[in-house]
Amino acid sequence: MKVANSLLENCFSVIELLAEEGRSMRLSEIADKLGLQRSGTHRILSTLCGLSWVEQDERTELYRLTLKLPAVGFRFLHASQITDVCRPTVDRLAREIHELVRLGVVASGRLTTIASAQGARGSLVCQLRVFPTLPAHVTASGKAWLATLPDDVALKVVLDSGFRNRRDFGPNAVGSVDALLSELKKTRRQGFGFAREEAEPGVSSIAAVVRVGDESVAALAVVAPSFRLGEERVTAIAEKVKRAAAEISTVWPLRAITAQALTLD
Predict the structure, then answer these.
(1) Residues 78-105 as b or e (16 or more Cβ within 10 Å = b)
(2) Which of 45, 46, 73, 75 is deepest in the core (most CB within 10 A)?
(3) DSSP SS3 for 218
(4) C-alpha to C-alpha distance for 118 and 109, rounded to whole angstroms
(5) Strands, E, within the chain: which ranges?
(6) pLDDT higher than 70, residue 264
């Protein structure tokens, strides 16, 4: 049983690595990054190819994910009705403040965007880099979520991913443990997450967590060009974001109720 569990864990590790990298990779690179034996990695990849989760380029022999994984994810989101119950609030907030609104869900110790609405008007619209998983330490959503965790747990989340090269982000990106702890303390005190030009230059964000009981299940964020987020507007938007997040919190449990009702039908 232990061997089977290990193989299953390694299989999912390969899938998660290919998803995070978002590119084609050599067998040797996959094995080295995961600390696996190359022979075992080859067997895993061969099995995943046979199941159509992974495909290998015949010319380069590189491996990459197929579209089966995102297709399964989208089917789950549709069936669970997460986006359906949250969409009205996300859309309304975007219309009210005329900026981009983004909802990220907490899953497996990470934040992943599942819904967004663009409320900005005119030619200057905030266009973000696509983060498959939101970098927790440099986004308002990440800070808002991390601030709900004990410091040691929050540090583990960030350190497991690594601070990475600060040149990958904006000029104000948090790059040390002390700076992160200071930001988390500030976030808890003000009641919302704020990041000014941390994820990328010229872009700032404000976020609040969506809670179900004592658990933080998601984070709702407003993202806008930094020059449009002066101190007074940050305060005003933060209040709107917190109210919207609280509203989503009240409907979030309806997912389980709806699913149960569908099962009974």
Answers:
(1) eeeebeebbeebbbbbbeebebbbbbbb
(2) 45
(3) strand
(4) 27
(5) 54-56, 63-65, 100-107, 110-118, 193-196, 203-212, 215-225
(6) no
